[in-house]
Amino acid sequence: MKEKIKMKYDILSKINSPADIKKLNMSSLGKLADEIRYKLIETVSSNGGHLAPNLGTVELTIAMHRVFESPMDQFVFDVGHQCYTHKLLTGRYNDFSTLRTKGGISGFCRPGESEHDIFYSGHSGTSVSSGLGLAESKKILRDGHYVVSVIGDGSFTGGMVYEALNNGGRSDARQIIILNDNKMSISENVGGFAKYLAVIRSRPGYYSFKANTEKVLSKIPFGEKIAKEIYNIKTDVKNKIYKQSTFFEDLGYRYMGPIDGHNIENLCDALESAKSIKGPVLLHVITVKGKGYGHAEKSPSRFHGISKFDIETGEPISSSESFSSKFGEYLCQHARNDEAICAITAAMGIGTGLDEFSRLFPERFFDVGIAEEHAVTFSSGLSKNGMKPIYAVYSTFLQRCYDQIIHDVSLQKLKVIFAIDRAGFVGEDGETHQGLFDVAFLNTVPDIKIYSPCCYKSLCADLSSALYGDEYSVAVRYPRGSMAENVSKLKFDCIDYSYYGKDDAEKVIVTYGRISSEAIDAVDMLENTALVVLNRIKPIPCEALDIIMKKKEVFFFEEAIKSGGVGEKLGSLLLEKGFSSKYRITAVNDEFVRQAPISDLIKEYNLDKDSMIKIVSGEL
Q: CATH for 497-616?
């Protein structure tokens, strides 16, 4: 497919449900795949989104919908960022231009959007567990339909997958696991499992024969009995030849593959064979991440999740420095002079700004794969022996690490630095990715300090303090995107907070992080109102608390979940000190936030300057 050619959607535009796919012949399915591929490129170039994972699963998704009967047969997509083709084939073609826009369709699976979307999914390693639960319930209900869990090989770096496989291998429920092996997660796959799959990929002839034999046997009388005997003999022969059984077969799965994940006919045959087997099946499919778009095939990591880009060149339409890039820059500056500094990522080295660190200090850079919980406890081990570990992680993924932070870091009184990227609203990725919960759950952890800088200068100071000033663990949380220019008005005479406005102002806005820029503009337009910007939000600085106590009206604005947030903590402290004047918190209430541009979300939740002005003035 040539990037410059506009595509006509002659077949795709007529697909209103999976039933329409079953009417097409194989050559038409191939044309459909081409149309889908270009539709993905066209839409993501305009809206941003996850391009490479979706380009790699076009034929696989077509084959699934041709062979199975969704939604009676249930599909569970691990992570869900590879579900765009699924959306196009399940009646959402006409709405696809709204992908990841406010009020539009989600970039991930969303049950409220379609009966074909079974689970919300935005984190990896969950599809085998949830799929097994679905399959077991079908067995209890005597529902003869299938459950298909699609999971990438990158997700096999996380431990939850193995817990599910260990449990599922003993089941006779109708779960088919499709291992989408593209040799990539977000960053390049790491670890022993990636090497194990490389060995299996070198033996395709044997497994192709196996899949074809099972297909033939399923169609003849007594075929299942014969297949079982052949399976036992085959396993003995294979073990003698290869001196090993496959890992999956040892767990109790019927292993099939590797299969070419871009050959629709072969995929359909393999899926039909998988349906004929009683009990759990693992189908190993080989795909190319970014398939069909040269720029994405060359740089699948860059096109995993991408903002708007030029189709012809593959280059982003706009780019600028960000909190992520500045964090990476500052960390490299410290690491040049301090050989104890180590950086840890869970397959997000590029996204968290650690690509330069990984190049300059490879022996001190650790990509542990999609294993966030392991990353925390691994960091605690580094800390125990005198290293200075910095774990860079998106806020949404840190949610998985609560137990490890408490038990393996805080309880041990170890110093691990958590560089929390994408804190606050993240925009178009929607409810599974909004970074709104880290403050609330970290507030419950003893001894940890939390900084939330609103500018690059504070980010640099916070990182220095975390490395060389603070005794125990530290979290430095910062938003997606770049710094607002007007925050340069703030003077942080100390690292903990900044006061902006007249000393005798009777009203005060209190806030932190990105929306500090909105508060500055609001205070500039309000009378008798000052601003306290917290840089350290746990513990709340005593000096800032003393200043706030003297005001007659306090308005706290927080780009985070209200329950357990800084606003509630500050209110409690003020009450304990005898504060009896007006206190109001504006934050995200008890809800999940859907996708929209960050600026729209700030307005929607009354965190923009105009809303602040109305609230302080009593108009809202």
A: 3.40.50.920
